[in-house]
């Protein structure tokens, strides 16, 4: 079998099983693990998978630039955002992460419902200007342009003073083995910090994020109390969510 054929077969197995292991692939194709690791490196360089220790996972399409992501899975994001908005109650303090799904969610909030939004996303803050009943606290810091959110020590110090009811956390990957992941090391730390400042963490994930992974771990699935999705999840992910006590809204 040619290397190109082998790599195509690896991608087919990855699409079916949502993970591949180097040792198993070596035995399947009767080639050395060095050859398999080279295949995985080349596929990762082409953006076709995410390498992890011992193998690879499907790569998340949600790491594209913000303007590109706005046009991905728009109908699903609106449906997911509607379910998320319904979880917010009057008087709560709610941390809202940056992202395309949370941007859809704030459009669906009642303008006359009083509660407080804490966000490190200038876009989310500006999007709530015409909501007179919602108090908005914008956490300042260094602007991370890829996701249009603030990061850094200033943001972290301000967040440490917040005790919120809910945190709507954005992710780029939800996987039964890798947990919640994102495409930026700095952002992963910010999301962990914000999750610690809330009683409940809610993750809204459209289809391209499910059974996929990015380079940097935010945390295990147990980090979230609720996962909001659109459509049916695979059995491995359902089982992992159940083990970690995560409720699923679909």
From TrEMBL:
PROSITE patterns: HTH_DEOR_2 (PS51000)
GO molecular function, one term: DNA-binding transcription factor activity
Stretches assigned to the HTH deoR-type domain: 3-58
PANTHER family in the record: GLYCEROL-3-PHOSPHATE REGULON REPRESSOR, HTH-TYPE TRANSCRIPTIONAL REGULATOR SRLR-RELATED
Highest taxon of the lineage: Bacteria
SMART domains assigned to the protein according to its UniProt record, in alphabetical order: DeoRC, HTH_DEOR
Origin organism lineage: Bacteria, Pseudomonadati, Pseudomonadota, Gammaproteobacteria, Enterobacterales
Gene3D superfamilies assigned: 3.40.50.1360, Winged helix-like DNA-binding domain superfamily/Winged helix DNA-binding domain
InterPro entries: Carb_Metab_HTH_regulators, DeoR-like_C, DeoR_HTH, NagB/RpiA_transferase-like, WH-like_DNA-bd_sf, WH_DNA-bd_sf
Protein name: DeoR/GlpR transcriptional regulator
Keywords from the UniProt entry: Repressor, Transcription, Transcription regulation
Cited Pfam families: DeoRC, HTH_DeoR
Organism (species): Jejubacter calystegiae
């Amino acid at each position: 079998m040619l290397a190109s054929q082998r790599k195509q077969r690896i991608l087919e197995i990855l699409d079916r099983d949502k993970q591949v292991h180097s040792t198993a692939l070596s035995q399947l194709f009767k080639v050395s693990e060095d050859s398999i690791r080279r295949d995985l490196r080349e596929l990762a360089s082409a953006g076709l998978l995410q390498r992890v220790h011992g193998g690879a996972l499907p790569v998340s399409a949600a790491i594209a630039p913000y303007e590109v992501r706005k046009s991905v899975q728009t109908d699903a994001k609106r449906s997911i955002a509607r379910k998320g908005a319904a979880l917010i109650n009057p008087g709560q303090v709610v941390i809202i992460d940056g992202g395309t799904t949370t941007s859809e969610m704030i459009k669906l909030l009642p303008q006359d419902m009083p509660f407080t939004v804490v966000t490190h996303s200038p876009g989310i803050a500006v999007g709530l200007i015409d909501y007179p009943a919602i108090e908005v606290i914008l956490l300042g810091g260094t602007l991370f342009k890829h996701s249009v959110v603030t990061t850094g020590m200033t943001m972290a110090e301000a967040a440490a003073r917040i005790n919120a009811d809910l945190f709507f956390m954005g992710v780029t990957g939800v996987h039964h083995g890798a947990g919640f992941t994102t495409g930026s090391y700095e952002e992963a730390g910010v999301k962990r910090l914000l999750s610690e400042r809330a009683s409940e963490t809610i993750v809204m994930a459209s289809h391209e994020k499910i059974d996929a992974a990015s380079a940097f771990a935010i945390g295990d699935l147990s980090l979230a109390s609720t996962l909001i999705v659109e459509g049916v999840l695979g059995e491995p992910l359902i089982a992992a969510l159940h083990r970690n006590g995560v409720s699923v809204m679909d």
